């Protein structure tokens, strides 16, 4: 922490303006100008300084970060989240999601029972690919990501080949190579979702399939929980695409949507995550290198006491998420994500 503090202090002393691009007056999805503010919030996970706004287009319903993070801002807010200080914590979290990874792999089996090749875009450390290989043992899984996690995934044997870089730039060398291309909670991180979809069309062979899973901005939880809804994930999530918009764009790119799933893509953590975010926001900050100094012993003790006092609320939220709301998520439009499977014609 102490070693990283000077670099963060220098970044913050340079001022926040360079972390943002100019504010847009039109929708990046449809070009419409009927914009309204949907959400204002802060970084509720790392608690790095900054305030972030999500606008919604009245024409097509697309929700997007406005102003959007600049390249310098993306580097600053991603730093020590998936790698560095956050690598082990996030790696352990993603590595424990075996059931969800199996369901994602099984989602394509009705349409392509035994794909020979699969590219997972935004693969991180490749945990999905490692589990999916158990479902599809004859499939070769490759991974692509812009962080060094994909290189670690290749070294660990979770993916056959790890491609590091931007998907649109790498797509020409991957053209027509894959039976399946997946984007699980990747598109919302991209600066230009349309370019990513075009890259996917290039990498999928004719007759192959694209699987896209993203947060559902039309979820009722998004409205009910407000800034405490985990999938907003500011400032990392830049775009929230309504399913109708995605279907139309895929059709324009020459895909046929063969499946649209909501309940199957739901991750039953909404109340638990909202409770944790509220507790974590209320408690004194834990140590982080972007803070000017290490919290005192008293503040650390107060944080521990408050989080311990919140354990009953966290347990109750977990029970409600998994036992009460999970079976009703699809019917009550509470699903926090949707999944689309599309065939390239």
From TrEMBL:
InterPro entries from the entry?
A: SAM-dependent_MTases_sf
Question: Pfam families in the record, alphabetically?
Answer: Methyltransf_23
Q: Name one GO molecular function term.
A: methyltransferase activity
- Respond yes or no to whether keyword Ubl conjugation is given for this record: no
- Can you say what this protein is called? Class I SAM-dependent methyltransferase
Does Methyltransferase appear among the keywords?
A: yes
Instruction: Provide the transmembrane region boundaries.
Output: none
According to its UniProt entry, the protein's GO biological process terms are: methylation
**Keyword vocabulary terms for this entry:** Methyltransferase, Transferase
